[in-house]
């Protein structure tokens, strides 16, 4: 029998590695099991987010945005940059280095905090035992007082578009060695829009096929409509109500069949990205006698404290209910570690920010206007466009707005929605305000530095009561 641990975490993504570090900080004897290997057969930490998700996509989004700026924006500033070209291999190399640095950083953090790293595939047995099978097939069983399952998710595959060299998922779409001339994307969700943007900026003709009739249904529709206009202007051809029915690859060309309200269509592209959602990783994870239940959608069933139905077994992140977001997973990891150590911990699921890293970025926290209407909640609205912001003008980034929704009677902020420059950074102001139960008046009475983009948040808060200074509003006395 191998060592016994206070905590064994299965999975070293942003949920698992954060849980392991926090548990070790709290004095618990902690191990983290990870099966991912690099070419040298060494363990790779960081999960989807660091290796094939958030971080590499942001690296490519930054690089491609710079290219787009150099081509289309510099001239506005009086900077002439003729014949700007892209070296895709160099761009990819930079991205790979960032990933390497970050993932190796986790190994150092594990060492510094005394987390034992176990390389292999983890499986939960009965009585909180964890079986680990290494690359060579050797099996070791470990005992634990507590097990935290943090195995994440994987891209969903659909029968009409089996993956191959030309039809890829989000991982493949981060690895293109050249810019595809024609690129198809299935799914106008977060991944489809971010990766579609990267390659469109680098020169691909991009067509996005989306089955729903509403663009970004989870986003406040005033902002979603604004964003759709911008994306269309940038050349993304977004086709709604388009249901993909099949695909065929012939001589390097992907023929995609889809139908919409007007009938059946065909689209020819050089690469096709399938970005239709993600599914929880539970395959071969739970021995039949582990006793852990899944919910009706195949996620590990947990309560609001991330406890499964088996005492001492917890689950966090993409493998459980709730948004598939790295920061939600990390927060759950911290809370579970704290609870195991006997402390109190709580995730405020009402204050989790969302960001889509397109240009302009889309970010929000709390309820949308559509949700408030559906719930019959009475609310007030304040908006402020970046077109009226001096700092946005200086940055040549005047598209979009800030929108604040506040309760009609209590004035408590119910939601903040931003489409525009640096929305990913600015949304933290809404998250903090909501976490502290602020009213729109609290924000309106706060001093914001001038000139900053954040002043749009201030003005939107002032606008809730018709008091915005830099836009004309109907008078309220
Ligand atoms: N910036 C971020 O926070 C970020 C980035 C990437 C991924 N993620 C997370 O990863 C998860 C997966 O992202 P995603 O973009 O794959 O999923 P998503 O759920 O955001 O979007 C998938 C889209 O595909 C459409 N779709 C499904 N089947 C289709 C079909 N057959 N034909 C056409 N359209 C179809 C859906 O209607 C939906 O709009 C999300 O939950 C997201 O939260 C987050």
From TrEMBL:
Enzyme Commission code(s) on record: 1.8.1.4
Binding-site residues, NAD(+): 187-194, 210, 277
Broad class of the protein's primary localization: cytoplasm
Disulfide bonds, paired cysteine numbers: 49-54
Subcellular location: Cytoplasm
Tree of life domain: Bacteria
UniProt keyword Flavoprotein, yes or no: yes
Cofactor-binding details, from the entry: Binds 1 FAD per subunit.
Enzyme class, broadest EC rank: oxidoreductase
Cofactor(s) the record lists: FAD
Binding site for FAD: 58, 122, 151-153, 318, 324-327
Location of the FAD/NAD(P)-binding domain: 5-333
Annotated catalysed reactions: N(6)-[(R)-dihydrolipoyl]-L-lysyl-[protein] + NAD(+) = N(6)-[(R)-lipoyl]-L-lysyl-[protein] + NADH + H(+)
Signal peptide span: none
Domain Pyridine nucleotide-disulphide oxidoreductase dimerisation: 352-461
Active site positions, chain numbering: 450
Gene Ontology CC annotations of this record: cytoplasm
Keyword line: Cytoplasm, Disulfide bond, FAD, Flavoprotein, NAD, Nucleotide-binding, Oxidoreductase, Redox-active center
Family note: Belongs to the class-I pyridine nucleotide-disulfide oxidoreductase family.
PANTHER family (UniProt xref): DIHYDROLIPOYL DEHYDROGENASE, DISULFIDE OXIDOREDUCTASE
Further remarks about this protein from its record: The active site is a redox-active disulfide bond.
Protein name: Dihydrolipoyl dehydrogenase
Native source species: Hahella chejuensis (strain KCTC 2396)
Gene that produces this protein: lpdA2
């Amino acid at each position: 029998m191998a060592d016994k641990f206070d905590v064994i975490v299965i999975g070293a993504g942003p949920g698992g590695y954060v849980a392991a570090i926090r548990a070790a900080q709290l004095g618990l004897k902690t191990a983290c099991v990870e099966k991912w290997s690099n070419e040298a057969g060494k363990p790779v930490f960081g999960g989807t987010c660091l290796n094939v998700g958030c971080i590499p996509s942001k690296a490519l989004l930054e690089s491609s945005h710079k290219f787009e700026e150099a081509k289309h924006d510099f001239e506005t500033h009086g900077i002439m940059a003729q014949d700007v070209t892209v070296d895709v291999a160099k761009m990819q190399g930079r991205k790979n280095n960032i990933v390497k640095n970050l993932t190796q950083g986790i190994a150092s953090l594990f060492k510094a905090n005394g987390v034992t790293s176990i390389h292999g595939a983890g499986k939960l047995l009965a009585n909180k035992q964890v079986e680990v099978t290494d690359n060579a097939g050797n099996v070791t069983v470990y005992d634990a007082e507590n097990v935290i399952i943090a195995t994440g998710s994987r891209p969903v595959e659909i029968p009409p578009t089996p993956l191959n060299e030309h039809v890829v998922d989000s991982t493949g779409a981060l690895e293109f060695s050249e810019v595809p001339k024609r690129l198809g994307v299935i799914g106008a969700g977060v991944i489809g829009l971010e990766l579609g943007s990267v390659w469109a900026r680098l020169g691909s003709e991009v067509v996005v096929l989306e089955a729903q009739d509403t663009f970004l249904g989870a986003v406040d529709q005033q902002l979603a409509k604004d964003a759709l206009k911008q994306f269309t202007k940038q050349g993304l051809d977004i086709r709604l109500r388009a249901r993909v029915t099949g695909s065929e690859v012939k001589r390097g060309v992907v023929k995609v069949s889809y139908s919409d309200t007007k009938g059946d269509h065909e689209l020819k592209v050089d690469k096709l990205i399938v970005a239709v959602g993600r599914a929880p990783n539970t395959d071969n994870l739970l021995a039949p006698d582990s006793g852990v239940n899944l919910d009706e959608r195949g996620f590990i069933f947990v309560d609001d404290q991330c406890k499964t139905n088996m005492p001492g077994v917890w689950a966090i992140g993409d493998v459980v209910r709730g948004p598939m977001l790295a920061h939600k997973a990390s927060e759950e990891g911290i809370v579970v570690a704290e609870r195991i150590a006997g402390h109190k911990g709580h995730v405020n699921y009402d204050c989790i920010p969302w960001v889509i890293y397109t240009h302009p970025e889309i970010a929000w926290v709390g309820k949308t206007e559509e949700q408030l209407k559906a719930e019959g909640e009475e609310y007030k609205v304040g908006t402020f466009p970046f077109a009226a912001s001096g700092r946005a003008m200086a940055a040549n980034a005047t598209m979009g707005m800030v929108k604040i929704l506040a309760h009609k009677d209590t004035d408590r902020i119910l939601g903040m929605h931003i489409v525009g420059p640096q929305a990913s950074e600015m949304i933290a102001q809404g998250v903090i305000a909501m976490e502290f139960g602020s009213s729109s008046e609290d924000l309106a009475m706060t001093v914001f530095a001038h000139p900053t983009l954040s002043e749009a948040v201030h003005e939107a808060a002032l606008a809730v009561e018709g008091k915005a200074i830099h836009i004309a509003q109907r008078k309220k006395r």
